[in-house]
């Protein structure tokens, strides 16, 4: 049995999406040669690209640990963190500029050569980073595969910053099997303290030029960092996780003394200093939600939108697209609701009522949370059995489902994924925010699992880990999130909802949710919607839990543009699938098409068409 295609014509229709974008536009600054004189061979180019990759790792050393490659010549990276001080940020910008100049000297004309496609991907990523580095505020980190999705005009917010990211990273990613790695862990805790103060210095600078987050964003950040500043350092996750790892490795517990002292004498005071700076930001803050409220905010949003979608679509175009998509998707939902006898009121109102039904809710208790996690693991087990119907090439996709740490759940997204190591020794993780189980009615959970886990982020990430190192290090929001939405569609096409109409409603509500994001993100940042208008419109339109949507809307304020990459990427994948079907006719096999998407690796939308053109050409001649 092969995967059945359920035509999602409401998702795309006849209108071409990115159609006319040419990959050559990305290569305008490159030297090209048809004579071959002076041009590097593919092998030489691959070697040079590995040097580029090592430069990226030098700027973002955490990534080496996340991928499990902080060994051998890269072992010193295990002692370092991304430098968030002003000097560190300036050094990173200079390094990015130098690498971009080098990339522009490469001959990248024939993108059928894998190394040249790799070079074109690296060039596009570095150009995006340099464009973002032109803004003298915020945190543009597009070249980090760990945190590149969350570039922001606000150095610290409820979604990101050292306090949120580093403790979780040390806990979940850093192994301590021996004394040298224990020492490396302690070095990184020292760097954590420096990074907190570095962020605080940058925040003071940004406040001085008027770049201050909205009051509601700062309020959440103050609550989270205030709790950290007040915490007993001896009970911090940084120390307790380290102590546990030492015990598991049967290492001397006194190795934790240095970390304990650093947490007490350096980290805790640094958190207090950051808290005081946040309070100064709060005094200067307004309630304006969009980036337009500070100088150069409109230009910043234009960059953020381009970086997140890897297209040149305007805010007005994306806003209109979102409204069209919501209407089309909810028409399909209406049909299913009618068949289930759920009538009266808007689609959003009926979905809201369905989300409150007792049979759709897990108890908001520790036992209920365990039941919810068990339900998710059951969904993973079920979809694994279907993967041979959707892919010709399979991967193990090692996966753990874990709760978002309670210390950061107030500001964290509802669900997200973290890749495992290249060698598979550390599995990928799918995090779910369980601050309130009412945010997760049962019908909403299968599609979230397919998005974050299999065949979504964790599944796709294992293919990326098999690519050249430079490609494992570069991720593109519109590709990765577009893939994850397409993964939700794959599950529907595999028949996962054949006996679960409520689950299918959850899937369609999720698709409508991503379309709503297009409307709300552009609404706040380009059309000057208020936070309250955005929340009200979202809840009424899609029927989601108001508390969950409040967190979502505030996320879009902290990460302008990021939420638009999902549906834009999904629609481009569907356009290319239609193109491949038309070109190949009876030779089209959705399994090999899906293989081409994931094996081609993360690319900007402007280069994804090149990947599929090569798939079409190879299939025709096979």
Which key phrases capture this entry?
622 residues, mainly alpha, 3-stranded mixed beta sheet, 3 strands, 2% strand, disordered N terminus
Topology:
Blueprint (H helix, E strand, L loop, with lengths): L41 H18 L2 H5 L19 H18 L10 H20 L28 H11 L6 H30 L6 H16 L6 H12 L7 H29 L12 H13 L5 H25 L7 H8 L11 H19 L2 H4 L8 E5 L11 E4 L9 E5 L12 H8 L4 H8 L4 H5 L3 H17 L7 H25 L5 H12 L3 H13 L6 H20 L5 H10 L5 H17 L1
Describe the structure.
By secondary structure, this protein is mainly α. It has 24 helices and three strands. A three-stranded mixed beta sheet has the order 1-3-2, with helices on one face. Helix 1 runs parallel beside helix 4, helix 15 crosses helix 18 and helix 15 crosses helix 19. The radius of gyration is 24 Å and the shape is globular.
N- to C-terminal distance: 22 Å
Which H/E pattern describes the elements?
A: HHHHHHHHHHHHHHEEEHHHHHHHHHH
- What is the CA-atom radius of gyration, in angstroms? 24 Å
Q: Output mean pLDDT.
A: 92
Kindly estimate the percentage of residues that lie in beta strands according to DSSP.
under 5%
Brief summary of the model shown:
With 622 residues, this protein is an all-alpha fold.
């Amino acid at each position: 049995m092969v995967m059945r295609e359920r035509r999602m014509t409401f998702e795309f229709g006849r209108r071409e999406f990115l159609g006319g974008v040419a990959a050559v536009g990305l290569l305008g600054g490159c030297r090209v040669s048809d004579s071959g004189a002076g041009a590097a061979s593919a092998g030489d180019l691959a070697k040079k690209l590995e040097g580029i990759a090592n430069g990226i790792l030098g700027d973002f050393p955490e990534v080496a640990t996340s991928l499990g490659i902080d060994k051998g010549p890269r072992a010193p990276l295990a002692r370092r963190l991304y430098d968030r001080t002003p000097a560190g940020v300036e050094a990173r910008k200079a390094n990015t500029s130098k690498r971009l100049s080098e990339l522009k000297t490469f001959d990248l004309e024939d993108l059928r050569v894998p190394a040249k496609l790799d070079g074109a991907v690296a060039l596009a990523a570095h150009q995006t980073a340099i464009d973002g580095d032109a803004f003298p505020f915020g945190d543009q980190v597009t070249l980090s595969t760990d945190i590149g999705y969350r570039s922001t005009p606000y150095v610290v917010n409820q979604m990101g910053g050292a306090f949120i990211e580093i403790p979780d990273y040390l806990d979940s990613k850093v192994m301590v099997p021996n004394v040298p790695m224990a020492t490396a862990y302690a070095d990184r805790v020292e760097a954590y303290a420096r990074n907190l103060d570095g962020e605080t210095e940058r925040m003071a600078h940004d406040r001085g030029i008027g770049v201050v987050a909205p009051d509601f964003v700062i309020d959440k950040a103050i609550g989270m960092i205030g709790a950290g500043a007040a915490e007993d350092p001896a009970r911090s996750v940084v120390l307790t996780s380290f102590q546990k790892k030492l015990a598991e490795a049967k290492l001397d517990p006194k190795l934790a003394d240095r970390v304990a002292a650093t947490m007490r004498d350096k980290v805790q005071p640094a958190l207090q200093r950051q808290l005081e700076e946040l309070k100064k930001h709060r005094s200067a803050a307004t309630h304006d939600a969009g980036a337009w409220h500070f100088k150069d905010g409109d230009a910043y949003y234009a960059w953020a939108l381009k970086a997140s979608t890897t297209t040149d679509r305007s805010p007005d175009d994306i806003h209109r697209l979102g409204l069209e998509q919501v209407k089309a998707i909810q028409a399909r939902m209406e049909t299913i609701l009618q068949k289930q006898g759920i009538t009266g009121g808007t689609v959003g109102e009926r979905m809201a009522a369905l989300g409150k039904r007792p049979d759709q809710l897990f108890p908001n208790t520790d036992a209920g949370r365990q039941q919810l996690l068990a339900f998710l693991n059951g969904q993973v087990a079920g979809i694994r059995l279907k993967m041979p119907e959707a892919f010709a090439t399979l991967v193990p996709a090692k996966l753990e489902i874990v709760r978002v740490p309670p210390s950061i759940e107030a500001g964290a997204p509802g669900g997200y994924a973290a890749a495992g190591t290249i060698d598979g020794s550390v599995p990928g993780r799918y995090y779910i925010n369980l601050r309130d189980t009412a945010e997760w009615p049962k019908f909403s959970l299968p599609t979230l699992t397919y998005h974050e886990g299999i065949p979504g982020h964790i599944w796709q990430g294992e293919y990326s880990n098999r690519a050249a190192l430079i490609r494992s290090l570069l991720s593109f929001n519109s590709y990765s999130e577009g893939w994850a939405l397409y993964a939700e569609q794959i599950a529907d096409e595999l028949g996962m909802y054949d006996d679960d109409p409520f689950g299918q409603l959850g899937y369609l509500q999720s698709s409508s949710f991503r379309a709503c994001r297009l409307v709300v993100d552009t609404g706040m940042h380009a059309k000057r919607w208020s936070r309250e208008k955005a929340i009200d419109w979202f809840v009424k339109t899609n029927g989601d839990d108001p508390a969950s949507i409040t967190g979502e809307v505030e996320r879009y304020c902290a990460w302008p543009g990021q939420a638009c990459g999902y549906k834009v990427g999904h629609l481009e994948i569907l356009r290319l699938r239609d193109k491949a079907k038309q070109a190949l006719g009876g030779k089209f096999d959705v399994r090999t098409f899906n293989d081409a998407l994931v094996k081609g690796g993360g690319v900007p939308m402007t280069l994804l068409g090149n990947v599929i053109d090569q798939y079409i050409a190879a299939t025709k001649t096979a």
